[in-house]
Each structure stands twice: as structure tokens, then as C-alpha cells.
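Quick log. Single chain, no ligands specified.
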Amino acid sequence: MSSDSRQLDIFEQRIRDLGNRGDLDHDQKLELSRAIERRDEILTKQLLPPKHEQERVKLYLQPISLREANALISRWHRHHQPDRGCHFCIAVNDGENIRGVAIIGRPNARRLQDGYTAEVTRVATDGAPNACSMLYGAAWRAAKAIGYRRLVTYTLPEEGGGSLRGASFHLIGQAGGGSWSRKGRPRVDLHPTQTKLRWEKTTDHA
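-> predicted structure:
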């Protein structure tokens, strides 16, 4: 086993350990963020071709309807179904084809529904480099321009946060998780039920 593979196993185990805990203190949040960052660096090194072989593509922003965005979410997203509503949607294209989409709407968490907080509820791409960071950055600029003061989004503990860090989002800590199904209102869960990580960007640290 290579040195990178051993380090990858160590970081992934630490991410799982921290992700399964309850509330994290400040030092543990920093440790989790660093573990995710290092894990992402190793994965990127292993998965991406050499720089001279990587796809070089210039991306452009464009508006897109919820219907169109959901069609691409169905095709590209790993664990979420299309969204039912939104405030607005954004896409990136390479001059010919759409390469990624983002859906921005009302926060799912009721305590965040203060009228000044929006949530990036879906982001999906075909793997185009920098598409996710470009979408997150554009989502914040658009939300801020119409008066929102905070933009939140969530990732699974095993997912990377490189695109969010690239768009200057901050890792806040653990949030959510669990089933939507209740005794008096049974539902089939079509989303991951594990604890998630919340990221946000606000006008205080924009």
C-alpha cells in the first residue's frame, strides 16, 4: 500500500469518527475541516490526470429554469432527487453545453427560515473542473444582491468540501440527519439520513 493510500485511510477513518459524534467543539471542527481538506487533496492527486492532460474549459454563467435544472439533477446527482421549488436556479456552460446546475431555495431547517437566509439545496455537475465552486460563488452573489444575509448548504461527512472552501464558505459543524418519516405520517426516505455538515457564507464574512 502506498503512503498516500495509508494517509487516505487514516483521514477517512478520522472523518467518520468525528462525523458520528454529537456536537463538536471548536478544535474538533477545525480538525474535521483539515481532515476533509487533506483527504480531498489525496483523492484529487489520485483521480485527476496530470495537469497537462486535464480538460481546459472556460465556463460561463447562465440562468436556468427549475424544470431544466431538475432534469440535470436527476442525471447527475448522487443521492438527491429533483427539488420541488426554488428562489432561483443557476447553471454554468462551456459555450455549447450545460456543465453544472445549482438550485437555491428556502432553508429546510425551520429555525433558519428567518427571511434573510437562503439555502443551496442542490448542486450537480458533469465533473467539469471548477464548476461547483463557480456555482456556489454565483449563488452567494445573487442571493446577497437581492437582500439575503446568509447562504447555507450541506454535505455528507464523507464528501469533500473543496468547492465550498474555494467559494469561501465556512464549515459551521454538524447538523440535520434522521428520517422524515413519523408515526402519524410515514414516508419513504429518498435522501441520506445520516448527520450532515453545514457550511455557510454570510455578509459578516463575505
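The first helix runs from residue 3 to 19.
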